[in-house]
Design goal:
Layout lengths: L7 E2 L8 E2 L13 E4 L4 H9 L3 E4 L3 H7 L17 H12 L3 E4 L2 H9 L4 E3 L5 H12 L17 E3 L5 H6 L14 E4 L5 E3 L2 H17 L4 E6 L6 H14 L3 E7 L1 H4 L10 H16 L4 E5 L13 E4 L4 H13 L6 E4 L13 H5 L11
Parallel strand pairs: 3-4, 3-5, 5-6, 10-11, 10-13, 11-12, 13-14
Antiparallel strand pairs: 1-2, 7-8, 8-9
């Protein structure tokens, strides 16, 4: 989500679809949480896959019982709306400032009357529902290992000293991947997660939705982005401005590829990716897609982009990308070259110079 949210329309059969929220609600996209009615079970699972704290209506009564709270049939002056569960959903939405997601017009009307944030979705198709939310909320459409898709509890990385207890003794965990990939464990139900073929299927579905949703441009940029400095930030500023609300793909060199022809130490792929994500969220309030680069071209030979943003030393790589695309019968990508940013001494700001102790991240001579 970008900046502050005002009143956004998810037009589903007129004014019934209005999403209202306070003008001073400036929560970042990571802080947005939802509560979904019983008709939106699949959507609830997918929102959790995207990292959003999402309560399912069918779990509300159990949750409130676990909290030790007592709730009667409170209708707040609307005796015609006597559904206990609906009132419990609204109570929780108001109490925890959750956005209510529903396909029930009566529930949406009741929610607005009580001042709850609500989106009335028009479609019963999952892809359409995600498109609707992406359009009105700038929803993150990248899978994030943050929530359990089953119970909504937080998930965390499995530590090395937990491998035997949590992974080896579970039949459904692929033993060949242990010590070769990351695993996560749900802090609520204990379910184990890892990035397998199902993640690729999830990403394919989300990519399709993004292409159909994005009103802006598709931007590609690549690099190592080790020790994020002002030169990198100027490059990323160009990327953001060109995207015009579209989606951004950053090709980030793998650990192996990053260390080719480099004698100095390089931060791990995981650390560099997290630094980029946090910077783009903090600076521009956007989520970016990060793909691992094991060669100079990455996904640019197969996927379509409006622009590829490069620095002077990678201009020839961009030309080669377009040559290979032409040979495959694909449309060329427009190339935008961003000049190097110079340090105080007139030389280029680079991670190598920073790590040698010659300059700082802003180009000041040390």
């Amino acid at each position: 989500m970008r900046g502050k949210r005002g009143r956004v329309s998810a037009d589903a059969e007129g004014a019934d679809a209005e999403y209202g929220c306070d003008a001073d609600d400036d929560r970042a996209c990571d802080d947005v949480s939802f509560i979904a009615d019983r008709m939106l079970g699949k959507l609830c699972v997918w929102l959790r896959i995207l990292g959003y704290d999402t309560i399912y209506a069918g779990q509300v009564l159990q949750r409130l019982n676990d909290d030790g709270e007592t709730h009667g049939d409170e209708t707040h002056g609307d005796e015609a709306h006597g559904d206990i569960e609906d009132n419990l959903i609204l109570n929780l939405a108001l109490k925890e400032r959750r956005i209510l997601l529903t396909r029930d017009k009566q529930l949406a009307t009741h929610a607005r009357a009580r001042g709850a944030m609500c989106i009335l979705l028009r479609s019963d198709d999952l892809n359409e529902q995600l498109r609707e939310l992406a359009s009105c909320l700038n929803l993150n459409l990248e899978p994030v290992a943050r929530r359990c898709s089953e119970c909504n509890a937080p998930i965390r990385l499995v530590r090395e000293d937990e491998v035997e207890e949590l992974l080896i003794n579970r039949e459904y965990v692929p033993k060949a991947l242990i010590h070769r990939t990351d695993f996560w464990v749900c802090e609520g139900c204990g379910r184990i997660y890892w990035e397998g073929s199902h993640w690729r299927a999830i990403r394919r579905r989300l990519e399709t939705i993004k292409k159909e949703t994005s009103p802006g441009r598709r931007i590609a940029v690549g690099g190592t982005f080790d020790t994020l400095h002002d030169g990198h930030k100027m490059l990323l500023e160009t990327v953001y401005e060109l995207s015009a609300g579209g989606y951004i793909t950053i090709g980030l060199t793998s650990d192996t590829f990053a260390r080719i022809k480099r004698e100095r130490a390089v931060l791990s792929f995981k650390a560099r990716a997290e630094n980029l994500r946090q910077y783009m969220r903090r600076k521009y309030h956007v989520n970016v897609r990060i793909v691992e680069l094991n060669d100079r071209y990455g996904v640019t030979l197969d996927e379509d982009f409006d622009y590829i943003v490069i620095s002077p030393e990678t201009y020839n790589v961009a030309l080669k990308i377009n040559k290979l695309r032409r040979e495959k019968g694909k449309k060329e990508i427009k190339i935008v070259k961003v000049p190097h940013l110079l340090a105080e001494d007139g030389m280029v700001i680079s991670a190598t110079r920073i790590k040698r102790g010659e300059i700082d991240r802003h180009g000041n001579v040390l």
